[in-house]
Amino acid sequence: LAEQAGGITVSTLKEAEYYFEHGIIDITYAVGIVPVKMERIISLIKKGAKITLIADSVEQVQFVSAYASENKVEIPVSIEIDSDGHRSGVQPGVPLLMEIATLLHKSPGVSINGVLTHAGASYQAKSIEDIRRAAKNEQKAAVSCAELIKKHRLPCPVVSIGSTPTAVFADDLAGVTELRAGVYMFMDLVMAGLQVCDVSDIAISVLTSVIGHQKEKGWIITDGGWMALSRDRGTASQVTDYGYGLVCHKDGTPLNGMILSATNQEHGIISSNTDQKIDFSSFPIGTMLRVLPNHACATAAMHDRYHVIKNSDEIIHEWIRINGW
Amino acid sequence: LAEQAGGITVSTLKEAEYYFEHGIIDITYAVGIVPVKMERIISLIKKGAKITLIADSVEQVQFVSAYASENKVEIPVSIEIDSDGHRSGVQPGVPLLMEIATLLHKSPGVSINGVLTHAGASYQAKSIEDIRRAAKNEQKAAVSCAELIKKHRLPCPVVSIGSTPTAVFADDLAGVTELRAGVYMFMDLVMAGLQVCDVSDIAISVLTSVIGHQKEKGWIITDGGWMALSRDRGTASQVTDYGYGLVCHKDGTPLNGMILSATNQEHGIISSNTDQKIDFSSFPIGTMLRVLPNHACATAAMHDRYHVIKNSDEIIHEWIRINGW
């Protein structure tokens, strides 16, 4: 980002505003646009930001064009492609794609930035082969739509894909110009379960204290519940279900067999997921433990900052988070 | 709270610090105490707060007494009772109860405040009768422990219970001196599923915008995903599973049959949970909808403030939240 080679993707306008205030110009807001958000977008553009929006309907192009023209600004718009049916976007091959592209090209204040997709279904892959197929499908969906637009003699400079599993396992990125991946930065247990990373690659954890023992039940009680970990149960459908997280020593060494099996608001329950019983004498009240989360995004969202640490407890940086909208 | 009749219960020290700064003196911190938190607690007490802690082990009494004596302060401690086996606390009837009580009574810097329990298992009740039984059990567990302590000629002034379902359906509160209930304030779909409230009693919702249609699938896509609603799936095990929430018109009228069936980080997917198909023409892009959440606590925690509204969109107050620890 030092020379702003590729810009950033954000999922909220609050992120866009924060990063623009801190010097980043080229920002894609990758959630379908609605009229109520246009005022803040126009304001950012007037201050010098290059904001790219996404659309998967004619209506969106119409009101973005109207706002842009009225405010005498230019807004590049990427057409959102639904490469795997998991949420929004235009299906490749339907007439709507060229309807939107044509309208974008001829309407004042807007232009075709390109096509954009997210292979979110890759999170449900059952094997690396599944992920490779999802990556191929993602590339093919995006590139084929871009080619169709170009065949109609319209511009389509950006072909943007992105999901962490497909980013790691894509064999063929021919025709792709941009990749957006999020969990990629920290990784998490869901990604380890998908074989996208190793547990030792996970660079995010929640520090928690032992507050009690329920010995007959084999439980250690901690002060880290779902307020600290989030309610995400992403590993529930994977081969290894870690409950709400894998427990580690304070220095990050996994205590294999010990998981955060249940959570209340501010309480965590650690139990064994193997035949091995927990040795309570090793975890007296006050012992600090780390928990590796199922889903880095969901867990991080429960906090207002990251502590960047060295040697298990030396805090060398604090990174604030931009939560909210 | 105007005359501080009963004080408050908090689940984080950040809440304790915030409310003390805003004039509330009598504060129970109802999560098992650990040494690393004692410095902040001592600091609050020295400034004039009356902080009550809870303990379910001898070790906790020992270190709280040591910190209190060293700092020349007095700390009342309630003994946490495990009335239904769902997380922490001393089981009624085991010798540990009197061990802790005796130690609290004779140790410097600490005193027996009373007993405290939370009938969290009432959230899994299958009928109102189940909740009544849970309430009876909660009262009985707390009162019997208090009576045992008093039988040993030790003081036990406070008998504290609390969970929203049992607070609503308790028939007999004889011997109980304090009730702590949280969801009670807003109610939510889980409480409606338990027949603790009616859907029309729910006083909290997330406002969201329609950002797209996936007509072949019967989906409306919104900009409110699990970042706005939380990952809580509390109604999943109830008779009516609302997914991530029940969809309403902007004025709060439920659109019965329309639920937030799935969420991504910043995307919600609304679909029908009845035979009735969604009429997309009634929900053009930009339409604002409210979503009633499964769990008020979890959803509120995703936000930094409440907008108190009148007539569907007039904001008459902003209440900030105290997130974090």
What's the quick description here?
Chain A is built from nine helices and 15 strands.
Task: Compile the SSE list and pairings.
Two copies of one chain form a homodimer.
Chain A: E1 8-10, H1 13-21, E2 26-29, H2 38-46, E3 50-55, H3 58-70, E4 75-81, H4 96-106, E5 110-117, H5 128-151, E6 158-161, H6 164-169, E7 178-179, H7 189-193, E8 206-214, E9 219-222, H8 226-229, E10 246-249, E11 254-263, E12 268-272, E13 288-292, H9 296-300, E14 305-310, E15 314-320
Parallel strand pairs in A: 1-2, 2-3, 3-4, 4-5, 5-6, 6-7
Antiparallel strand pairs in A: 8-9, 8-13, 9-12, 10-11, 10-13, 11-12, 14-15
Helix pairs in contact in A: 3-4
Report what the structure shows.
Two copies of one chain form a homodimer. The first copy, chain A, has helices at 13-21, 38-46, 58-70, 96-106, 128-151, 164-169, 189-193, 226-229, 296-300, and strands at 8-10, 26-29, 50-55, 75-81, 110-117, 158-161, 178-179, 206-214, 219-222, 246-249, 254-263, 268-272, 288-292, 305-310, 314-320. By secondary structure, chain A is α/β, with parallel strands linked by helices. Chains A and B meet through helix 3, strand 8 and helix 8 of A and helix 3, strand 8 and helix 8 of B.
